[in-house]
Amino acid sequence: MSERGDVDNRVGVLVMSYGTPESLEGVEAYYTHIRRGHPPTAEQLEDLTSRYRSIVGGVFPLRENTNRQVKALQATLNELSGEGRFVCYQGLKHSSPFIEDGVAAMAADGIKEAVGIVLTPQYSSMSVGGYIKRAQEEAEKQGVAMTFVRHYHLHPELIDALAKRVSAGLDRFGEQRDEALVLFSAHSLPEKILELNDPYPEELLETSRAIAAAAKVGKWQFTWQSAGQTGQPWLGPDILETIDTLGREGARSLLVAPVGFVSDHLEVLYDIDLEARRFAEERGIRLERIAMLNDDPQYMRAMADSVLAALTGDKEG
Question: Which residues of this UniProt protein bind Fe-coproporphyrin III (predicted)?
Fold first, then answer.
C-alpha cells in the first residue's frame, strides 16, 4: 500500500474477486475451499491442475493481475480525488487474503470508512451479492462503516475500453472483418437465479448491446461459458454448443469478447484460448479473442468513479 494520507481522513477500498491459487502446490487447498471444505477427488484435482499447468507452465501470473489492478485502482482514486486518502485492500472469495481478512486489515489500520467493489462489473445475488454479504458482516464486527458498488456494467469508460478491444479484434480478420461474428460471453451460473429475477443475465446483455453499438458491430450474440459441474442445470447455451451451432450455420470467423471477465485467468486462457479455439478449429472456424482489461486505465477510471459515487451516496455509480 502506498501513502495513507491523513489518518483520520483515510477511506478503505475493499477490492473483491474470486481468487486464484498462488502456485500449483496451492491448487488442492483452493479447490477444497470452492467445494466448501470437501477435498476434490484425485481425478478432479489432476484435471484442474493440468489446466493451470497448460496455460502458465507452473508459474502463476494470475494473482499478479489482481495485485496490479488493486495497486492501479488506488493510484487512480487518489489521482481523481486529488487526495492521498484512499487505501485499497484485497478480499478474495476462495483464497487468501479472504474477504474477511481484507476488512480486518482495514480495521487494524484504523480505517473507519470504506467502500467495497467487485472486479466483476455485472451484479448477481450469487456472485457480487455474496461478496457484499460477507464483507458487510465482517465490517459490522470490526466497526467499519462500509458502502458498496453493486454494479458498473454500463460505465462509459468501461464500454469504450471494451468497444476499442472489439474493434481491434475484428481488425485481425482483415478482409473477412465484416463476416466475423462477435460472441459475447460470461461465466454461467445455476439456472435457479432466474427464479429470483436476478439481474445478471440482463446486465450482461446490456453491456453487450452497449459495446456492440459503440463498436458498430453488425453481427453478434451472447453465450455462456465455464459452467460448474454440480449436477444442477446451469445457464446456457454453453460456448462450445454455440460454436457448434454457428459452424453448422456456416460461420467461419468468430471473435469472443468475454465481457463478464476483466482479467487474463483460467476461464479465459484455458476455456477460450485453448478449449474453445481447438473446438472451433476442428469445425473449420477461426476463433480470436479480444484483449482483456486487466489494469487498463479506462477500466480503473470506471471503477474509481463508481467508488467515489458510492462514497457520496450515489449507489448506482
Answer: 18, 35, 51-52, 131
